[in-house]
């Protein structure tokens, strides 16, 4: 089995990593009663640095490696591999940075969380480390593996097998009901886009709707129709229902400001 993750997925990674020494560390535990060998690797698509370590059952070890990133590298990937079948291993930590020593507590180049949603009211262009959610749903490319893992096909999957970004154009946000019954129709919420997640779950949709109600019609029936030889006059028939005249616009909405919604990929 092999676990791999691109660690070059941030803007201007080439300016910061090409030609530099990158060091990485992982802490792995092997539970149970089996022993195995684990290989920890760094690859830039042209060169590879790896180290294979033997683990006894129940043992925890740290593996350290480094790689001089090629000037022509197209990516940088860290991977953990074991050829032992049916082995269980716990990856406690994985971290990497520029330099001869991997530092666990070194601040990240890009702040924030992968998959975090942000919003802007003064620009319609997302920052370099974010993707717009105010466009038609699009499939992520292979350059967004971390965001692809986060979305995990919740809003649908494209022809290449990668997750689709949600299309939030024109939607308001509402806090997840989570069984509180504040949203009385939470169980009937539908999937967004090509997703399959429905009901009282994060990322589902409700279309606009009025709360059921009636309008009372008040008529003055105290008037008298005078008798005589004139033609008959129209009068109110209280046995027949009537409708109010139409009023309002194309949707039900509160006062609002249009904003750009984005999602962090780096």
UniProtKB/TrEMBL annotation:
<protein>
    <recommendedName>
        <fullName>Phage tail collar domain-containing protein</fullName>
    </recommendedName>
</protein>
């Amino acid at each position: 089995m092999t676990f791999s993750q691109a660690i070059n997925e941030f803007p201007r990674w080439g300016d910061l990593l090409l030609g530099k020494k990158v060091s990485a560390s992982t802490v792995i535990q092997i539970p149970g009663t089996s022993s195995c060998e684990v290989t920890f690797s760094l690859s830039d698509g042209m060169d590879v640095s790896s180290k294979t370590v033997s683990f006894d059952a129940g043992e925890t070890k740290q593996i350290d490696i480094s790689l001089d990133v090629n000037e022509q590298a197209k990516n940088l990937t860290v991977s953990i591999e074991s050829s032992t079948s049916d082995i269980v291993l716990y990856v406690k930590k994985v971290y990497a940075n520029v330099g001869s020593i991997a530092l666990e507590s070194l601040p990240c180049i890009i702040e924030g969380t992968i998959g975090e949603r942000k919003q802007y009211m003064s620009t319609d262009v997302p920052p370099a480390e974010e993707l717009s959610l105010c466009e038609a749903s699009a499939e992520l490319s292979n350059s967004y593996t971390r965001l692809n893992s986060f979305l995990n096909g919740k809003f649908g999957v494209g022809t290449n097998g990668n997750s689709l970004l949600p299309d939030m154009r024109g939607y308001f946000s509402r806090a997840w009901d989570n069984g509180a019954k504040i949203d009385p129709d939470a169980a009937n919420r539908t999937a967004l886009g090509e997703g399959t997640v429905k009901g009282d779950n994060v990322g589902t949709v409700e279309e606009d709707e009025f709360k059921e109600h009636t309008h009372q019609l008040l008529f003055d029936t105290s008037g008298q129709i005078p008798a005589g030889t004139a033609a008959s006059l129209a009068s109110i028939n209280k046995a027949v229902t009537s409708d109010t005249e139409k009023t309002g616009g194309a949707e039900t909405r509160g006062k609002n400001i249009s904003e750009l919604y984005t999602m962090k990929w780096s």
